[in-house]
Amino acid sequence: xxxxxxxxxxxxxxxxxxxxxxxxxxxxxxxxxxxxxxxxxxxxxxxxxxxxxxxxxxxxxxxxxxxxxxxxxxxxxxxxxxxxxxxxxxxxxxxxxxxxxxxxxxxxxxxxxxxxxxxxxxxx
Length: 124
Prior knowledge:
The structure is a single chain. With 124 residues, this protein is an all-alpha fold. 62% of the residues lie in helices and 0% in strands. The chain contains six helices and no strands. It is elongated, with a radius of gyration of 16 Å.
């Protein structure tokens, strides 16, 4: 006998993850290209990083532990590897190539999670 609850999609959390990750990458690239000077508001980049990390954890949690089995579970599995570069980025330094390369290492997993979460839930 089922719980009577309908499986919910975690797609909004995956979209929020992708949006905050994309915004943070764009801000970081603009700073690296010296299009924007963030000396007075460097906290924005840090806040976007924290938001991206929190949304990633929330999306993976919702997709994995959703009850009944969430239609977002494949998306959660695809997003899990993004946790590694997100965890390493604070230790990658801010000067040189290492920081952007580590940050961009999460991109394929964020994109895959978003695509899988956006697929219709009632597919067979």
